[in-house]
Amino acid sequence: MGKKTKGIHHITAIVGNPQENVDFYAGVLGLRLVKKTINFDDPGTYHFYFGNEAGKPGTIITFFPWPDGRRGKIGDGQVGVTTYVVPKGAMLFWEQRLEKFHVPFSKQERFGEQYLRLSDPHGLEIELVEREEGDNSQWSFGGVTSDVAIKGFGGAVLFSADPEKTAELLENVLGLEQAGEEGEYIRFRSTSDIGNVVDLKTSSTGRGQVGVGTVHHIAWRTENDEDQLDWKERIEKHGYQVTPVQDRNYFHSIYFREYGKILFEMATDPPGFAIDEEPEKLGENLMLPEWYEPYRSKLEQMLPSIQVRELDKTQK
């Protein structure tokens, strides 16, 4: 039997104003800010990680906030829609919460499931779906309690410049199983109970452009460093150019761009987000890798101040 990824590790996107980003994902969606650090490749930019109480793989969305960045265009070669899963029976709560904070949404159906589709303040496309699978988040914040809180990723909708090649990669290289076809979508499933459903759009939406309001890359799970090197060898044997291993402090990463132009990452589950903060303190302080510690004072002066705050109706 071939190798199989468990599913999505994280999704990383580019957004605008950092406080608006925190207000929406923590204040409105009720996710936990589990890590506040910097973009290791662009240290003058924040890197935020939001997820469940511990930042479990499959729950983490990460952001590079570029307040003055050029607006991007969602299209082929990107994750077009990020899907979040909520507990069964929670959808009415989310409809009412989005209305409370004046977030427009629409209702859609795909593969027999009902979705709420919305956009974040910077244009990222998001949807919510109810499923039994996956543990409830134990994080409660700002009126979002564990019984209705976002569990993590339901999955993603991929917009590919070459859907046939992307489908081949998902099934024959990453080990996802094709679960059905409906209209312009092919559905794939991984073995995990979260971050496990990927819908591939087979029609073109036009070429995407990287910038504010677009997903930069999607990362798939690997068990550990040894497993990651096995994945690197496997992917290279299928003709893809894979980067050397990159140390991202909270996981190790390799990257490649698949033939549909989507940037894929393979990220290790360990070591996780508690290596430099106590679990109950996650996200409270600016955390830097040791090679940036000598520049802490300068970086703290450069980066705008942000706070995780509970929102009421008057703040939206």
TrEMBL record:
Q: Which PROSITE patterns match?
A: VOC
Per UniProt, the keywords (alphabetical) are: Dioxygenase, Oxidoreductase
A single GO molecular function term of this UniProt record: dioxygenase activity
Superkingdom of source: Bacteria
**Pfam families assigned:** Glyoxalase
- Say if the entry is tagged with keyword Protein biosynthesis: no
Query: VOC domain: which residues?
Result: 7-131, 152-269
PANTHER family, alphabetized? RING-CLEAVING DIOXYGENASE MHQE-RELATED (PTHR36110:SF2)
Annotated protein name in UniProt: Putative ring-cleaving dioxygenase mhqO
Classification of source organism: Bacteria, Bacillati, Bacillota, Bacilli, Bacillales
